[in-house]
Amino acid sequence: AQSVTQPDIHITVSEGASLELRCNYSYGATPYLFWYVQSPGQGLQLLLKYFSGDTLVQGIKGFEAEFKRSQSSFNLRKPSVHWSDAAEYFCAVVRNTGGFKTIFGAGTRLFVKA
Amino acid sequence: GAVVSQHPSWVICKSGTSVKIECRSLDFQATTMFWYRQFPKQSLMLMATSNEGSKATYEQGVEKDKFLINHASLTLSTLTVTSAHPEDSSFYICSLSGSGAYEQYFGPGTRLTVT
Questions:
Q1: Is residue B6 over pLDDT 90?
Q2: Cα(first)–Cα(last) distance of chain A, in Å?
Q3: With the C-alpha atoms ordered B62, B65, B71, B76, is the resulting torsion angle positive or negative?
Q4: Does the bond joining B8 to the residue before it have cis omega, within 30 degrees of 0?
Q5: How close A44 gets to chain B, by Cα (Å)?
Q6: How far is Cα A89 from Cα B52, in angstroms, rounded to an integer?
Q7: Mean pLDDT (whole number) for B74-95
Q8: Do A74 and A50 touch, CB atoms closer than 8 A?
Q9: Of B43, B93, B97, the CB nearest to A100
Q10: From chain B, which residues contact A within 8 Å (Cβ)?
Q11: What is the DSSP string of B75-115?
């Protein structure tokens, strides 16, 4: 069965420091992978997506993610974190067999300290 | 991307009553809509998928007679929680998807509290 694992429940980084949020997926076919961010009082917002092609994808707000098939990973990175990046981040994979369904990871809460 | 609104943003109701939550796409024709439930500090759990013009498909374990979904048009979907109980208290989120696309556009969510 398809699944998404985000090993870190929460992460704390200092403002200006680099960030990497981990995501591992289990999916038999070529996955469609996403990262979403959820800020308090706001809906989930798409940060970036990977369908095919270049395995390093750029997203909004300075985020990027790298698809590594050999490691079944799709880690999210940002070189310099801003206080406004504090939020909940969800990795997701789309299953397109028997209907379109998005499977979300449990999420990683990012705390940013001054 | 699409702009999605939900109404109300929060609601408190008494046990046994029904509550309707609206999800509107303000600028996008949505052939598919999704309803999720999110418990505190947990991920999104898909409740049901609805396609315009057809009945919703409910996920295993979701009571379709309790959570009524109506995809009335390409811009409106409603979720009605019937005979609500305190255990139905949760954060309900809708999302939209266009035909052929895998991206979803999410509403801001509705906080339901049943007393």
A1: yes
A2: 41
A3: negative
A4: yes
A5: 6
A6: 30
A7: 95
A8: yes
A9: B97
A10: 1, 4, 32, 34, 41-44, 46, 49, 57, 93, 95, 97, 102-109
A11: TEEEEEE-S--GGG-EEEEEEEE-TT----EE---EEEEE-
